[in-house]
Design a protein that fits this description.
Elements (H helix, E strand, L loop, with lengths): L2 E4 L2 E4 L4 E7 L1 H4 L3 E7 L5 E8 L5 E3 L7 E6 L4 E6 L8 E8 L10 E4 L3 E6 L1
Parallel strand pairs: 2-11
Antiparallel strand pairs: 1-3, 3-8, 4-5, 4-9, 5-6, 7-8, 9-10, 9-11
């Protein structure tokens, strides 16, 4: 089972980035695909999730209206479009596959990618 996150980089505050997560079939078929992040010195936190059908999405409050999660089932890829980036969005971003879209706990996710670093300069 593999998940490969990419698209991170250095961006100025107010800018945009799009993260991609390419997943193996087994992971991508899980009911939920999610993005998490770990900021320096902080715990890993939930960012966004999307259901297998893409009908349902779920966001943490701090990114609502700025980030958009989507998926391309033909490409086994999940995206996180990030706009109006802030310094506090700086973190390593991880994609993961889990069992319930409404459960933001990392324990709900059983497959994880290696992470991609996003740095937002103020």
């Amino acid at each position: 089972v593999q998940l490969q996150a990419s698209g991170g980089g250095l961006v100025q505050a107010g800018g945009s980035l799009r993260l991609s997560c390419s997943a193996s079939g087994l992971a991508f078929s899980r009911p939920a695909m999610g993005w998490f992040r770990r900021a320096p010195g902080k715990e890993r936190e939930f960012v966004a999730a999307i259901s297998r059908s893409a009908i349902s999405t779920y966001y943490t409050d701090s990114v609502k209206g700025r980030f958009t999660i989507s998926r391309d089932n033909a490409k086994n890829t999940v995206y996180l479009q990030m706009s109006s980036l802030k310094a506090e969005d700086t973190a390593i971003y991880y994609c993961a596959a889990g069992s319930r879209i409404t459960n933001p706990s990392p324990a709900n996710y059983d497959y994880w990618g290696q992470g991609t670093l996003v740095t937002v300069s103020s």
